[in-house]
């Protein structure tokens, strides 16, 4: 999504203003796969692709806010910010009213989109635009809905960089490999990189063609189309899925989705808050990630830097 520079700066500043440090929680003990692959021995991956929420960024909800169960929002939820939003955008309503609208709105959007895909994804600014319809306010309605969407997310699902995230990305960017993202996301997700790392994803070394976000595709992980699109674009660069590594914290959305498209997989088990093992999911029967990593810095060891 393109913004005027003034709006982009304001959105980035909002992320910085309403964010606070989050520390990963201890994950449960996990045994590495019995045949855990050693990429340095087999040759480094041609590409490393990432999930965002719960992998590159600690997330109070353990995922992007639109993916949380109704009534949740993690320990980082700040009720005072929700009340401020209600007072500013909808006088007479409460923060609880905002949550109720949002959770109901997500369900409605998903029902509307369900005919197109099994894993529908909405554009959250469109949901908040519905909320603002008929409410008197000055300024550009589209910008106002984007600002409300971002501020609501920061209230219910604050995020903070995972330890070692920036250093790992910069180290991988110095290697010959390709960097990409396949993530459930909203318009504000790419702005997290600018807010916390000082640069948008492209300037950090990510291939622009391999920035694959659910809100742009209209479907969420583990939808096969997201991973298939990445595989097609990697093929144009001479890289087969089996030569590439996908890193995520969710066994179903990340590991199952990526493995189904032929990618090698690494389960990020560095934060007990966001680790999703999905042990009751039948489609995971017999599926194991190729690697289990507890520190993002482990990924930097896979690809030697360019001298």
Beta fraction: 5-15%
CATH class category label of the largest domain: Alpha Beta
Report the strand count. 8
Strand order of the largest sheet: 5-4-1-6-7-8
For the largest beta-sheet, the strand count, sense and barrel status come to:
6 strands, parallel
> Which fold name is given in CATH as the topology of the largest domain?
Rossmann fold
Number of helices: 12
Helix content: 25-40%
The CATH architecture classification of the largest domain is 3-Layer(aba) Sandwich
Q: Would you kindly provide a written description of the structure presented here, covering whatever features stand out?
A:
This protein has 307 residues and is of the alpha/beta class. The radius of gyration is 19 Å and the shape is globular. α1 packs across α8 (189-197), α3 crosses α4 (95-113) and α4 packs across α5. The strands form two sheets. It has a six-stranded parallel beta sheet, with helices on both faces. The chain has a two-stranded antiparallel sheet with strand order 2-3. The protein has helices at residues 5-17, 39-42, 79-89, 95-113, 124-132, 141-156, 165-173, 189-197, 214-217, 224-235, 251-260, 297-300; strands spanning 47-50, 57-59, 159-161, 178-183, 206-213, 244-248, 264-268, 291-293. The protein folds into two domains: 5-59 and 159-300, HAD superfamily/HAD-like (Rossmann fold), CATH 3.40.50.1000; 67-156, no CATH class.
């Amino acid at each position: 999504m393109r913004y005027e520079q003034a709006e982009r700066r304001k959105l980035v500043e909002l992320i910085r203003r309403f964010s606070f440090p989050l520390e990963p929680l201890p994950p449960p003990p996990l045994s590495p796969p019995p045949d855990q692959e050693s990429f340095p021995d087999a040759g480094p991956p041609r590409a490393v692709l990432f999930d965002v929420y719960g992998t590159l960024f600690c997330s109070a909800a353990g995922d992007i806010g639109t993916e949380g169960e109704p009534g949740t929002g993690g320990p980082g939820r700040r009720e005072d910010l929700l009340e401020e939003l209600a007072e500013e955008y909808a006088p007479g309503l409460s923060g609880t009213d905002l949550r109720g609208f949002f959770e109901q709105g997500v369900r409605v959007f998903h029902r509307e989109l369900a005919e197109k895909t099994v894993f529908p994804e909405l554009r959250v600014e469109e949901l908040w635009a519905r909320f603002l319809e008929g409410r008197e306010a000055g300024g550009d309605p589209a910008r106002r809905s984007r600002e409300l969407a971002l501020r609501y997310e920061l209230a219910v699902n604050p995020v903070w960089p995972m330890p070692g995230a920036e250093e790992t990305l910069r180290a991988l960017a110095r290697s010959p490999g390709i960097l990409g993202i396949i993530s459930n996301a909203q318009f504000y997700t790419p702005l997290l990189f600018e807010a916390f790392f000082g640069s948008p994803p492209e300037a950090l070394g990510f291939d622009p063609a391999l920035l694959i976000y659910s809100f742009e595709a209209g479907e969420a992980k583990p939808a096969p189309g997201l991973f298939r699109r990445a595989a097609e674009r990697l093929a144009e660069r001479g890289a087969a899925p089996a030569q590439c590594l996908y890193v995520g914290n969710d066994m179903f959305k990340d590991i199952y989705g990526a493995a189904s498209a032929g990618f090698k997989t690494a389960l990020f088990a560095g934060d007990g808050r966001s680790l999703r093992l999905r042990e009751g999911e039948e489609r995971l029967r017999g599926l194991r990630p190729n690697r289990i990593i507890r520190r993002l810095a482990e990924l930097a060891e896979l690809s030697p830097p360019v001298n």
